Amino acid sequence: MKKRDYYEVLGTDKNADVNTIKQAYRKLAMQYHPDRNPGDKQAGKQMAEINEAYAVLCDQDKRRRYDMYGHAGLEGYSSDDLFHGVDFSSVFRDFGMGDFGFGGSIFDSFFSTGEARTRGPRRGADLMYTLKVSLEEVATGIEKEIEIPITRTCPSCQGTGAEKGGTKDCDRCRGTGKIITERRSGYGVFRQINVCSKCGGKGKIVEKPCKKCHGRGIVEENDIISVSIPGGADTGYKVRVKGKGEEGDEGAPPGDLYIVLEVEEHPIFERHGDDIYMVKEIGCYQAALGGEVNVPGIEGDLKLDIPEGTQNGAVLPIINKGLPHMDSHSRGNQYVMVKVTTPQNLTRRERELFQELEKLQSKEKKH
Predict the structure, then answer these.
(1) What is the CATH number of the domain that holds 77?
(2) In 10 A of CB 247, how many CB atoms?
(3) CA-CA distances (angstroms) from residue 31 to 28, 36, 87, 264?
(4) What is the pTM of this model?
């Protein structure tokens, strides 16, 4: 099932600021949380969709990737990746609601119970790049170099976002990166651990931002990638470049780069699989008498035999002059649809000849 646009899910536009995103999420959570809709099986699904939209749009990096590439920009993210560092209950604390009466964190209700799971270093996100190529390029296969923007850990601050000595312990979580709350439930105590929303789980607050990355901890660089496009590739074909995605957490591998092909429309040829089609105009005398005409091919001009008496709309094949089959030495065909044209602005002599031809054909039909 196709995912809905995250902004549509929360009912906001793409220019909405963080506070607007939080307000929209809080309103929907109050409406659809299953604890407020007992017996409604759809409420859980709607709440999960709302949670996922908020988890992406409240995070600066994930939101940037989503705005650039849509859902494809988050391919390779696991559920843990999507919800990593998101403190759902802080939305309600920010609005002065304290324990909002849902029996614990909305996040915990759907994705964990009790203590938060221990996570290892997160692998870097995969990237997707759309590469436009011509029909001629995929007819022969080609090696192309592309320049793509990639985010890297800032070499100046090593990803901390601060100048040397420019951080202090977070006063909210006291440098632990976690907020622990306990609530008595039934016969036991429910212990809940959330990532600190103030420091994002880092335990540190930046006082002096890094001058190179301006406190982001990452910098954008352009990388030159060499890509091999095989003959016969079509729109949607993917080339995986391992390790050329975004960097992972410390100790984790980078993601991969997926280059997705988009074959541009051709002014002459129309592609159907590995066969190509075109239209060739010929005069009515050529159609009647037959002969040989030149037609453009994907790799140069070709000769086409016109049988005597060819009718308008006839489709004539040129064998093995289409596109190559991938992983094979054979090729598709080129098909030429003949369009017979009627001469205009006839000279007196031409008109006389056509009239004479008409008379001859009329006599033959009588006999």
Answers:
(1) 1.10.287.110
(2) 19
(3) 5, 7, 19, 46
(4) 0.54
